Structures are given as structure tokens and as C-alpha cells.
Amino acid sequence: MGTALLTDRYELTMLQAALADGTADRHCVFEVFTRRLPSWRRYGVLAGTGRVLELLPTFRFEADDLEWLAQARVVDDRTLDYLAGYRFTGEIRGYAEGEAFFPSSPVMVVEGTFAEAVLLETLVLSVLNYDSAVASAASRMTSAAAGRPCLEMGSRRAHERAAVAAARAAFVAGFAGTSNLEAGRRYGLATIGTAAHAFTLLHDDETNAFRSQVASAGSSTTLLVDTYDVTRGVERAIQVAGTGLGAVRLDSGDLGVQAVEVRRQLDQLGATGTRITVTSDLDEYAIASLAASPVDSYGVGTKLVTGSGAPTCGMVYKLVAREGASGELEPVAKTSASKTSVGGRKSAARQIGDDGRAVAEVIVDGPADQVAAWVSDSADLRPLHQPLVTDGVVDSRWVGAPGVRAAADRHQRSRDELPRGARRLSTGDVAIPTTTLTLD
Amino acid sequence: MGTALLTDRYELTMLQAALADGTADRHCVFEVFTRRLPSWRRYGVLAGTGRVLELLPTFRFEADDLEWLAQARVVDDRTLDYLAGYRFTGEIRGYAEGEAFFPSSPVMVVEGTFAEAVLLETLVLSVLNYDSAVASAASRMTSAAAGRPCLEMGSRRAHERAAVAAARAAFVAGFAGTSNLEAGRRYGLATIGTAAHAFTLLHDDETNAFRSQVASAGSSTTLLVDTYDVTRGVERAIQVAGTGLGAVRLDSGDLGVQAVEVRRQLDQLGATGTRITVTSDLDEYAIASLAASPVDSYGVGTKLVTGSGAPTCGMVYKLVAREGASGELEPVAKTSASKTSVGGRKSAARQIGDDGRAVAEVIVDGPADQVAAWVSDSADLRPLHQPLVTDGVVDSRWVGAPGVRAAADRHQRSRDELPRGARRLSTGDVAIPTTTLTLD
């Protein structure tokens, strides 16, 4: 499926005017950043970079796209001609997927002619805003879970394709698996799931349902024990599966209280190895509140795929520098009330203290070679910008299943590097300040 | 693109067990409903029905799907054989798209064998939960706008494919157009958009940018006047385009105050017909607060595509009746704490008072023929269930661009029919109570 029409109309109308007035070829630098984090977040988690890169080669205007654009009179013939040959041939740099980010972090920088870079705004932002919203929420959940596995089960509460991206983003931020089969296939994620209440209700009684499930899936399965009465459900589960039952799932009621009761019952029945998994409107706070309960894993749905209070990030795609009439690259910035942007082609690094923990986000503005030299000469700076696309060619290490696995590893390191207070769930300041430095 | 793997793994593992124990063929009735609305909503708006029906024929397990399921050992060979031949051959009834709904409204009812109906849970819920979340928010926005056009511009703040669904759902709830080109193409929606700040910044100065845009798009275009100073921007806009300029757009600052100032300035310049469109973090409350301001249209983004505080609906897909060992259809229900379901194959009607306004949501449980006769004999009941799929065949009037247009008309009627208090934005009770009636 092509992605070229997943685009706001104004990108094409701007292109038409720029092709006509000769500015379409001006070299431009667009920067993706967010102005602020939700008040209760101390860091954001970048996700979706790999998906942007996977989608980039599909951003082509095919014959049927062009036909519709012509018929709907979106743009003129000259613009249609340009679009017919469209290929992104520029450069994309940015934070590697899984990195923490902060206000003003230039998480992605797209360079090319105005024509080729302006068209990517909507696609880039759609992917990064949604995926990062999910990953930023997911990271707080896996942090609150303190090592107990978190499992993604939110597909039904997200658009059917967004659900696949959500499963991927959750994995980047430490989730152990997903219920979503397509995410399992496409990104090599572990898939999980055994039965819903409907399976119990389908059968003449709970015992018959459990027998059927154990016969089909073995006694290592997870039995859902709260369709009727939890105590009777646990009793029947062990009667049917024996003390080797893999797990029971609780999906209702006061999970903390029930987990204690069920653990006691399982132990009394001799099922000391049977685990307890809980699902039901969990978020990072509910997970934290269950820390002392005998829960073995968390299934998280709604709150995960909707970003736990922040269903999108506020990332924007702003022109920060462009070739002027002289042919030189010049910084540009708007001065709109409360929505200013800062001009200049920037790079970024994380300043690391003597204890190995992050101290500041350092954004560096200046000529590319000077910035690179300065960052590499500074022992306390970890450079954040990586080459993602060079001369239009995507660097394959960021995409597909290997890209996702690497991003998950990277997120763990990036989060471990943050100051200790960064994992607090309470409202408060961002974990590290952002400082800006101009070299010239 | 196939949709069969946009599914939670447990649906397939349940299927495997049911195929093995002989219950897979039991006739089942699954019901989609929500337990509650967000506290500040007096009604919900059903959207996505047409999309469910469009996606249903693509729910096929193709060779590559089956190959992956086998390789990942999700299900056994017998189940793979069943999936290879999977076609939904059952019935789907439900509320027509655009209807208002309330807690417990049975907005969709899926009937078929357990095997064929259980597999649709995730896809049906993903579509209805997201699309209805957007439409429910959108309806409050168009209501608050009181006839001024609302335009959808939120693609960048939603997953790239969800953005298309959001534009469609917004249109169902009264939006006049969208920035999203794919939504324009697929559903015949009007597309809008002229220029971003980047276009002004690309040029050597604002006047040059405006000249270029007017040369390309004509003086009926909308010029974005807040890149630098709004007063100077408006002055330049009229200098360049003349007093016949179509509109100016304000995207920052205090929109209410600015609209007054800009209106006065435009009138003084003689541009009395030039409209003012505003964009910038609008939601239903911001729109309501601008009711007395000289604003001509609203562009809405983030809050629309994220459901303005409720980014998903809480719709669930519950087994409410199934064929028992005797071969008779029997109501079934779970009794889990705070998550009970009500058994029985139900229909629904809206009770209308003498003033033509809705009085109650009436859910009727009983034999299909008796329910139908009772509803049609009751002069004050408007039946809500429509046939959507019969013997596996989708009724074409609900899908595509015609389906969306009909849903938008229907929503307007359904909203007009609600009690007058239903449009209040404040927190409060749902607009009408839900009552349940059992015939036998």
C-alpha cells in the first residue's frame, strides 16, 4: 500500500507555488521536535523511526494517485509531473529509535530540496507522534513493573493498523510480547493469548471449558478464572490441569486483593509454580500499586495504546534553515505567539556526568563539521544524531525486526542512563535540562 | 492488504480448542456494546460500521498468513485447514452508522458459528472503538460551532492510517472537510489546505511568499498571517491579494482577541468579505468560547483525532447467547465483578416522545419475530437495528462514499432528535436512560 496520499493537502499546494516561483529547489533543513512533555512525564521515548524508514520507499505517487489528484484538481499539471518522478534523494539524521528525548530535542532532521522534504511532513509526524506516545507510556509501565513481564493486549482499543504499531512501540519500551498476530509476524515479536470469557461461556460449564483448553494447549496454558466465581474457578482449574498449570488470569475486581487470595489458594492446592497474570484497565499507576502483590505478569491494553493520558506527542516538523537568494544556507524561524521555532541546522548530544548518568541534553547549532568535531572532542558528550538516510538510501540497520530488537536494547540503556529521579511516576520537572550551544 | 492477522492470538487458540471439542459449530450471538460513556458525554456517536463492512471481505487467511501461523506454531494443522477456507457466512445487524448510542446500546450483533464469529472480535472492536471515539468528539465540536464549518486537520497527530479513519469519522459527525488526501480520495470528502509557516519561511520575505501563493492559487486562497507579526501579515496579505482575498488563517496566540482585531483591520482595509479561519489546539470548549468572536471556520487537529479526552471507546464484544448441548439457543452471561454482561439476543429501538424527541433507549430481549412485531406495533419506537450482513454478504448501501454521506445525514437527524440538554458540554447524565424489556 502506497503512502503518498497520507499527506495533508497543503504540502502539495505549497509545492505547486514553489515550483512556479523557483523556490522548490532551495535546499532546506526541516527539524522534528516537541515543545514540551506532558506535565507528569520526565522523559519521552522516541519510537517509530524504523517505521518511517520502512515507509519512505513506499512514498511514491503512482498512476492512480496522480489520476485522482488531477481529477480532484488538487494541483496543476506541472506539479503532477514533478510528483510522478518523486523520490526522496536527501538526508535524514536523527536520534536512534528507543532513545529518551526531551523538549526541543531534534529527534529527526530531514534535508533536501524544499520540494522533496516538505512532502514528508505528515507521514513523518503521524508515525513519530503515535509510536512515541505509546512508547513513552510503555516505558513508565515497564519501569513500574520492575522486572515482571508486561504484555501488550490493546489492539481492540486502537485503530486496526495503529494496533500493530502500538505493539511494536511497546516492545521498544520493554514489553515482553503482544496479543497482536500481525505485529508478531512483521516484527518478530513474541505473541501471547489463550482464551476469553466467551470460551468459557461457549461451553456447558467452566470445567468443560478448562478441559477443552488444557487438552488443546497443554497444562502450561493460562486459564481465565473469573467468568463466574474466582475461588471456584481456581479450584476447577487445578482439578482439570493439575498442579502443573502454567498460570491463571484475573481480569476483574480488586486485582491486588484477589491476587493475594488466589496465590494462597493455589499454594494450598499445591500449585506453587502456577503463575498469576492480571489484566483489566492497567496503567503505570495500577502496576506500581501491585508491586507488593503476588502478581507474575501484567497484561496492558487501553491505557497503553492510548498513551496513558497523552494519546499523541506534540512533535512538529519545522523549517529551520534554507538556502537563500544568495545560495547560502540561512537559519529561519517563525515568531508566532507561544509557538516560536529556533532556526539553524542542529545536532544533539547527551552530556554524561562522572557517575555515568545523564546531566543535560545539549543541542548544538553550527556548521556540520565544527559541530561533529566539537562533540567528538568532548569526552562527556554522547552524540545522539545517527545517519538514517543518505542520498535517499535507507540504512537497513534501523528497520525490520532487527531494528526493533536493537531499539529495545537501546531504550533500556538510554533509560538506565537517566538520573535516578527520572523513573518517578509523579508530576514534576523533566529529568534533565536542555541547553543550547551555538558554534561559529 | 489482508486483515486476518489484525487479530488477537487468543481468538485462534480458542478456535483450535473448540474445533477439537466439537463446540466450534455451535451457533453464537456476539454483541458489541459499551458499559459507560465518558463522564462529560451525554451521548456517543457510532462510526466505523461502514469500515467494518468494507474490511470484512478482506478477512481471509492467505497462504503467507497460514505459513507464518504454522511456522510460529500459533495453531495446529486442523485449525490451519479451517482458516484456509474461512469466510464469514453469518449475519450482522446493528445501529446504522452515525446514530447516537448510550450505555448498553447493542450497536452491533454478530451471529454465526462460534468459529466464524469469534475471529472477528479484534477487527470489529478496533474499528468501532477508534472511529466512534473520534465521531463522538467531533459531534460535540460541530455542535459547539453552531453552523460554522469545522475542518479536520489532525492527520499528523494520529497513526498514518488511523488519520484516514479519523477524517472519515469527523465527516460523519458533521465536519465539512479534511486536510487528508487519502480520506478525500477514498470517501469522496472535500479536501482543504493552502500553506504552512514553512512556505513563508522558505521565501525571502512574507510578501514574496504571499505573492507566490496568490499567483498559484488565486486570491480566493487562505493566507497564513501569523508567521511574524499578525497586523503586518494582514496588511501584506491584502496588499498582495487585494480586498477579494478569500481568508486569513490564525494559528497562534489568543484567537478570540486576535480575531476581533483582524476582523476590524480587514474591514478597515475594505476586505469585508475576507473570512477568518482559526487553528491551534482547538477542542469543543475552545470552539464554544469563540462563538461570539468573528471567526468563520475552525480547523481542528489533535483533540479531534484523539477523541478529546477519550481516545477510544470502551466497546466490548461479548457472547450473549449460544446453542447449548440440546441444540437450543441459550442466553449466557459472565458474572465477573463490575464487568457483568447481560445474556440474550437483543434488538433495540429509540422511544420518541410526542415532541419528536428521544425519551429512552429501549433494549428488547426475546424471540426475533416477537421482538420485531412488538417494535413495529409500537408507534413511539424507532427501530435501531438494521441488516448489515446477510448470509455473509455485505449490504452495499452502508459502505464507500455513499455510506459515509448517508451516515453524516443520519447523524444530524439522530442528534436533532435528542433532548435539548444533550448538547451541553458540561459533565452530566447521559441524554436518555436505557431501559431493558424482555418478551416471552
From TrEMBL, chains A, B:
Q: Does the keyword Heme apply?
A: no
Q: Keywords in alphabetical order, please.
A: Glycosyltransferase, Ligase, Phosphoprotein, Pyridine nucleotide biosynthesis, Transferase
Q: Ranges of Basic and acidic residues compositional bias? A: 407-420
Q: What class of enzyme is it?
A: ligase
Q: Where is this region: Disordered?
A: 405-425
Task: Give the catalytic activity.
Answer: 5-phospho-alpha-D-ribose 1-diphosphate + nicotinate + ATP + H2O = nicotinate beta-D-ribonucleotide + ADP + phosphate + diphosphate
Question: What GO annotations for molecular function exist for this entry?
Answer: glycosyltransferase activity; nicotinate phosphoribosyltransferase activity
The protein's PTM annotation reads: Transiently phosphorylated on a His residue during the reaction cycle. Phosphorylation strongly increases the affinity for substrates and increases the rate of nicotinate D-ribonucleotide production. Dephosphorylation regenerates the low-affinity form of the enzyme, leading to product release.
Superkingdom, taxonomy of origin: Bacteria
Tell me a GO cellular component: cytosol
A GO BP entry: NAD+ biosynthetic process via the salvage pathway
The segment(s) forming the Nicotinate phosphoribosyltransferase N-terminal domain are: 5-129
Report if keyword Oxidoreductase is assigned. Answer: no
Its Enzyme Commission number(s) read 6.3.4.21
Look up the signal peptide feature and give its range: none
Name one matching Pfam family.
NAPRTase_N
So, what pathway does this thing act in? Cofactor biosynthesis; NAD(+) biosynthesis; nicotinate D-ribonucleotide from nicotinate: step 1/1
Instruction: Give the protein's biological function.
Output: Catalyzes the first step in the biosynthesis of NAD from nicotinic acid, the ATP-dependent synthesis of beta-nicotinate D-ribonucleotide from nicotinate and 5-phospho-D-ribose 1-phosphate.
UniProt lists the family membership as follows:
Belongs to the NAPRTase family.
> Would you tell me the protein name for this molecule?
Nicotinate phosphoribosyltransferase
Species the sequence originates in: Sanguibacter antarcticus
